[in-house]
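Q: Structure tokens for this one, please.
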Amino acid sequence: MGSVERDESERKPRKPKKARAGGPQPVHAVDRCEPSRRAWIAEAIRKVEADANRSADTHLHVFPLPPEWGVELYLKDESVHPTGSLKHRLARSLFLYALSNGWIREGTPVIEASSGSTAVSEAYFARLLGLPFIAVMPRTTSPEKCALIEFHGGRCHFVDDPATIYAEAARLAAETGGHYMDQFTYAERATDWRANNNIAASIFEQLALEPHPEPAWIVVSAGTGGTAATIGRYVRYRRFQTRLAVVDPEGSAFYESWVSGDPSLTAKGSRIEGIGRPRVEPSFLPTVIDRMYRVPDAASLACMRWTAEVTGRSVGGSTGTNVWGALQIIADMRARGERGSVVTLICDGGERYTHTYLSDAWLAAQGIDIAPHLKELRALLPPA
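A: Here is the predicted structure, written as tokens:
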């Protein structure tokens, strides 16, 4: 190959520039500030926060227990969010966290591993920001949730083995040059647990004028573990004596891990969508939990139907798990002669489970008999 002539200025070593008058000697520096990118991120954050401003807060319903029990039960209704579930709060926090960290920019594909509800909410926010969204989910995810993801402009990517959703989501993110949101890792750190309109602060504000404004117990289930982490941290930070109970469906690893103290335990996985995991997720903080219950699937789904009968509100399977756990707490309080309040969550509505939990044929195919539990619940408190 022929030689390449170089400019005279390239052959001679460059002399260092003289120091500026009154200033230090210049040093090597790299500037990666891109005003247009920062402007896009600022506008994206404004849009996400504007959604929160429009949404206001969710309702705290009184559950109709007999007054002579001396215990009030409240349901924090997260199903009224724009995307219909508790996961709307999480998705908003995850997007703000990723935007603030510079992980998402204009045009970035967003990928998530989910059992459905988080993906519905993330698809909503991705469309709000004009970003492509792919949800990696078990093939058994309810068709109603899949339809909602697609309604919000997302794409469903199914796997046969639920345990592979994490690796598949990471693979798709690498393949597309996208960002893997990873709710299971970042849920507990994306939410500001000190306050900033988190669910714990909202509960205490709404209880302020109730007979027992500081609840004896708050009962939640764990999917990522983020909600439990937020509430458990908040009550300690604010020096409340409220205790936190976490209910876990059968087939989940959380309960056995918490009891044994072994975070490496795994399990087959949960049939109650949105809660229970085959592994202990990074966002699950066992040290903020005061009590745990293992709830059979038949009890969860019976309680789902019974809660709808008693309150007139259609609720999902995870809400059934929550209410079943709350009833165990209340029974224990009554046995001890304690008075006070208990709070749990409506995670989403029952309309997402028409072809699964609300289908007698589906229950039979799964070998789930809810009749004994439903009889027990109706004896405790007959339908309205």
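A few notes: The chain has two domains: 57-85+190-378, 88-187. Residues 35-55 form the longest helix (21 residues).
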